[in-house]
Design a protein that fits this description.
- The protein is of the alpha+beta class.
- The chain has 15 helices and 26 strands.
- The chain folds into 3 domains: about 140 residues, no CATH class; about 150 residues, no CATH class; about 220 residues, Orthogonal Bundle (Transferase(Phosphotransferase), domain 1), CATH 1.10.510.40.
- The strands form 7 sheets. An 8-stranded antiparallel sheet has the order 7-15-16-11-10-9-6-8. Strands 1-2-3-4-5 form a 5-stranded antiparallel sheet.
- Strand 21 and strand 22 form a beta hairpin.
- The longest helix has 25 residues.
């Protein structure tokens, strides 16, 4: 794939617009909202940041979908708002040292912040240009994985990426590439669980085991690999015979030869996190897969259509911590292997994406990321799937996703992380949601005190657990704020989401009644404020993503 210069005016304009929108949403949620500096005058949301008045036409309720260019008030005249100006306002607001700030990191400067926002904007422009040069995958699931061009709608730098040469491996640019195959001498092989599928990728020499590697990963580890490659502890076996396809997480690829997803360790920062497989996460994935098997059997029996993607094994090389983690690959089942025949898995994030930038030229917006054209007969469509009855579609969607997530927490002490990139929706031939597939055990946790972890190493047990309050906040944020709010906004378009939330309330109330109205669900259904992850604050404070706090936002169930 050719690296494209940022010389497409349309791509640059869309990237600028999307960057302004993402950062402005963060300002509404994390800066102006908690300070009482947000108001609504139909059709505008109005706010103040660093004393400057801002406004944007909005719809979609809590999702804050913007139409037209956001503006700022200059000398009693509304002017288009640029990303650079908004960054300066955020820096002025959060950098004040008056001691009155409420968020973590306020009162302290951050000389990296503006560059991160600019880098994200530039990366987005490159991705928009690059994806036009390569057709999307024919597989509808993989096409949905590669549709998240704009990234997290409430993140200040949703496409910020560390390292060099990332475009060759970017799912948003419709990348595909062969994996590199290594042989690991058996006396330094590190593995656990079921890794047999990896042996089908090629032929390792006698006394060695096959270890696939992401080519970007090998570039980043070149200096560390020189010695073990020279003395024979590792051997380079060349490229795989087939191309792998990166999924939405960038470092996880689908390998069609073995029908598995492989989660690699890149050790570069992508949005909030440095993406690597720490040694305790390698061990934890296998341990969780073992423990979750009976849990998901129970969930599937109680809520038909519930699926999950186990991570039954990992393989690496015992060559010191850096290479153990850097070469570690986690084997994950593929969605095609768990969905029943006739069901097509689609990434929930692709269904929710919509046009997060406002005023973009329609032809320049990637097709999976904008509302589809009407289907024959005038029925509205969503991501190319007919939605003849949006309310029926939504009820089916909520029924598939919400009850198993809540039951996992309340009845099994398991914290699933059902954000938009961790859930696949299986649709039938009519486009109706009939299955929900949950994945990525890195974010899945066990509620402390409800599981016996005494036999595990301390660091593994620590990484596998949340306390009860933290676990509930994570579940409610991911399920309600990150997920259902965004799906509802996309389904409603520019219309009201009120009817959709009334239906969601009915589904959740039915589940609550079946479980005796547990207190957390009663509070949720009564309209208690929701926790929303503070991505801007954690980036400003330069903290680890796990330490991210929450701000409270309105509960859409309260007005349904």
């Amino acid at each position: 794939m050719t690296s494209l210069a940022l010389d497409s005016p349309a791509a640059v304009a869309i990237a600028e617009e999307a960057s302004v929108s993402a950062l402005l949403r963060c300002c509404v949620r994390e800066i102006a909202g908690p300070r009482g500096q947000v108001g609504y005058e139909e059709p505008y949301v109005l706010l103040r940041v660093a004393g400057t008045r801002l406004r944007a036409r909005t719809h979609g309720g809590l999702a804050l979908r913007f139409e037209g260019r956001p503006e700022w008030l200059e000398n009693d005249s509304w002017q288009p708002l640029s990303a650079d100006l908004l960054v300066r306002l955020v820096e002025a607001e959060l950098g004040e040292s008056d001691g009155e700030g409420e968020g973590e990191g306020e009162g302290e400067g951050n000389d990296e912040f503006g560059a991160q926002v600019a880098a994200s904007r530039d990366a987005l422009a490159t991705l928009i240009s690059a994806r036009r040069e390569v057709p999307p995958p024919a597989d509808p699931w993989l096409a949905s994985e590669q549709a998240l061009v704009f990234g997290h709608p409430f993140h200040p730098s949703p496409k910020a990426r560390g390292g060099e040469g990332w475009l060759r491996y970017a799912p948003e640019a419709h990348a595909s590439f062969p994996l590199r195959l290594l042989g690991v001498r058996d006396d330094v092989l590190a593995e656990a669980g079921d890794t047999g599928a990896l042996d089908e990728l090629g032929q390792a020499p006698s006394g060695y085991s096959l270890l696939p590697a992401h080519p970007w990963q090998l570039e980043l580890l070149a200096a560390d690999l020189a010695a073990p490659l020279a003395d024979g502890r590792l051997v380079d076996l060349g490229d795989s015979s087939r191309t792998a396809v990166p999924t939405s997480s960038v470092r996880t690829v689908y390998e069609p030869l073995i029908d598995r997803c492989l989660k690699f360790s890149l050790d570069v920062r992508i949005t909030n996190c440095v993406r690597k497989n720490s040694w305790y996460e390698l061990a934890g994935a296998v341990e969780l897969s073992r423990r979750l098997e009976p849990v998901f059997l129970d969930l599937a029996a109680a809520f038909p259509g519930t699926r999950w993607l186990p991570e039954p094994g990992y393989r690496s090389a015992e060559l010191g911590t850096r290479l153990l983690e850097g070469l570690g690959v986690i084997v994950r089942m593929s969605p095609w292997s768990v969905c029943r025949p006739g069901v097509t898995p689609l990434l929930s994030g692709a269904l929710a994406a919509g046009r997060q930038g406002a005023g973009a030229v329609a032809g320049d917006v990637p097709a999976p990321c904008r509302p589809a054209d009407p289907a024959p007969g005038g029925a509205p469509t969503m991501a190319g799937w007919p939605v003849a009855d949006p309310v029926r579609w939504w009820r089916a969607y909520v029924e598939r996703v919400a009850p198993p997530v809540l039951d996992a927490y309340l009845c099994h002490g398991v914290v699933l992380e059902p954000h938009l990139q961790n859930v696949l929706i299986g649709v039938d031939a009519e486009g109706l949601p009939v299955e929900a597939v949950f994945r990525d055990l890195e974010g899945t946790k066990l509620v402390a005190g409800r599981h016996d972890l005494s036999g595990l190493p301390g660091r593994v047990a620590e990484a596998l657990t949340y306390d009860a309050a933290s676990g509930w906040n994570r579940v409610v944020y991911c399920l309600m704020v990150n997920h259902l709010v965004e799906i509802a906004a996309s389904l409603a378009g520019t219309g009201s989401t009120r009817e959709l939330w009334a239906v969601a309330g009915e589904v959740l109330a039915g589940y609550a009644a079946s479980r005796g109205w547990p207190r957390p669900l009663s509070d949720l259904l009564s309209g208690a404020p929701l926790p929303a992850k503070a991505n801007l604050s954690v980036r400003w404070a330069r903290s680890a993503d796990r330490s991210a706090g929450y701000v409270t936002v309105a509960n859409p169930l309260a007005t349904a």
